[in-house]
Amino acid sequence: MGTSGSFKGSGGADANSLRDSIASWLDDVPVGVIAPDDPAAESEPAVSGDPAGPRVVPTALDPASLAPIIRLWRRGGGGDGPGGVGSGGAGSGRTAGRSSGGPKRTVGRVAGPAGRASAMARAYATGDSQSLERAGLNYNELRALNDPLEIGKRIADAAFETQPDGSIEDSEARIIVSQLVTWMMAAPEADPRQPDEIVRHTIELMIIQGTINEVGSTIRAEKDRGKRRAVEAEIKSAAAVMASQVTLGDSGTSPTEISQAIESNVALLSSFYEDKK
Questions:
Q1: What is the pLDDT of residue 273?
Q2: Contact at 8 Å (CB) between 32 and 46?
Q3: pLDDT digit string (tens) for 110-135?
Q4: In this structure, what DSSP letter does residue 60 have?
Q5: Does the pTM of the predicted model rise above 0.90?
Q6: Is 247 within a domain?
Q7: Which of 10, 18, 117, 251 could lock onto 159 through a cystine, CB 3.0 to 4.6 A?
């Protein structure tokens, strides 16, 4: 997971705080730890004499420790999104995120394509060929692929209105949207993902992918493979808890409505954790 093994993380208070939290968690976890989702977590403890010692399920990572990544996603215009939804300009007040150098993340870079991708995925699931055609996709051609991953990739690619530019932030956004489409495609055709689920899952993926990119060098520096696996699992779990804090009203299924809900709820989530500091 991640975009570039050479990226060492952004500068600034929030990025440093995020790395410090992950480094502290890794330092506190004993050798022999296993990720909660590892099948070995259900097995017997290691045998006597095993240099790794007993298998230990780690203490949960505090979701609040990932709050800095939310502040590294700037609100307002920019990228592929609708821009400025309920947040003002990207450089105003608390919307800019306290970072120095590194990816120039904007919520709009993800929110816009996520809204469009969710609408395309829903159209494919319901056989809405006209909506797909308006997006430049052919329903029959997609069905003929008979490959969910390739179908998802084409939908994700079509959701972006710009070509890849090779930047970390662009690659990050494309990974997030691709993962969103894959998740939507996994739902039964008779029970497609609902708008509130889509918004929450998009925000969850933003937290996960942004965090993994920012702390990747810290994780790679950890020699214990069990700790590396465990911390990635804990980041995913903590991100799910954070995203669950989002409270949504009745949200429509149009691309604009999904995009606006993502942007406004990232701002609300940032305020929620800012107030808890």
A1: 84
A2: yes
A3: 999 999 999 999 999 889 999 999 99
A4: P
A5: no
A6: yes
A7: 117
